[in-house]
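Service request form, structural biology core

Requester: graduate student, group of Dr. S.
Request type: structure prediction, single chain
Budget code: on file
Notes: please return the result as structure tokens.

Sequence provided:
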Amino acid sequence: MRRIILSMQTSLDGYVEGKNGDMSWMQPDDDEAWGDLFGMLKSKVDLFLLGRGMWAEYRNYWKKALAEPEKFSAHEVEYAKLAEATPHIVFSKTLKESGWENTSINSGDLETEIKKIKASEGKDIQIVGGGDFAAAMLDSGLVDEIRILVNPAIVAGGKSFFHQIKNRHSLELKEVKQLSSQVVVLVYNQLDTNSNINQNPVKRRAENNK
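Core staff response, request fulfilled:
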């Protein structure tokens, strides 16, 4: 069974974007962070998943990095080459053309299709984004590993990934790594997903203890 990995960068207070789309708090082009990412992707992953909301911006950015490498960092160009060589699947019920040769579109039911993909031959699968898609994937209970890069900043508002989560998820801490940039990498295995979070706590505890 193939494993699904979800990676994200957040502030200490759990935001993936600050107010008005501010990203200046995120550590720029950190060598260790890129090295950690490449080490994981190149050894474990052979498929990327995205939602429609992020796809156009993602595709255009990395295709431009391939076409005009002098305008991008060496790490970004390396990622662009890796992305070009790696199959992508975009989940969308409205998108007709992907606009990149490495990418197919899947318009089926998310959980049904993801189960098929996990049961197919191959290495691990990386969720690239965006936020709504990543939250839906996590809430499906089909994500196996969660990698969170916590930046040393409190942004006090913006777009929170965690506020979109509807279900409770039990996790097991697998690894903690502090980078020289003061970013902390937290790696968790997802143990189970439970959608009864809104139940009366006494009833919920009783069910969990069965």
